[in-house]
Amino acid sequence: MTHRVSFARKLFTYIALLVLAVCSIYPALWITMSAFRPGTSLLANSLFPKDFTLDHFRELFTTPNFPYGLWYWNTLKIAFMSMILGTTVSTLTGYALSRFRFKARKTILTTFLVLGMFPGFMSMIAVYIFLLQFDLLDTHAAIIIVYTFGAAMSCFIPKGFFDAIPRSLEEAARIDGASHWKVFTHIMLPLARPMLTYMAMTIFTGAWVDYIFARLVLRSKENWTLAVGMWDMVANFQSSNFTLFAAGAILIALPITLLFIGLQRLLVEGLTSGANKG
Amino acid sequence: MNTKQQETALQPSSAGPAHGKTAAVLSVLGMGLGQIYNRQYTKGLILLLLEASALFYFVRNLGHGLWGLITLGEKEQGMQKVGKLTQLVPGDHSIFLLIEGLIVLLAFIVFLAVYILNVKDAYRVGVARENGRKPNNIAQTIENIKETKFAQALLTLPLLGVLFLTVMPILFMILLAFTNYSFPDHVPPAKLVDWVGFGTFKDLLLLKSWSKTLLGVLGWTIVWAVVATVTTYFGGLLVALLLQQPFVRLKGLWRTIFILPYAIPQIVSLLVMRNMFNGEFGPINQYLAYFGLEKLPWLSDPFWAKVTLIIVNMWIGIPVSMLLILGVLTTINKDLYEAAEMDGASPFAKFKAITLPMVLFSTAPILITQFAGNINNFNVIFLLTGGGPINENYQYAGSTDLLVTWLYKLTLDRSLFNMASAVGIIIFIIIASFSIYNYRRSRSYREEDMIQ
Question: Where are the transmembrane segments (chain A) (predicted)?
Answer without folding.
Answer: 12-33, 78-97, 109-131, 137-157, 195-214, 242-263
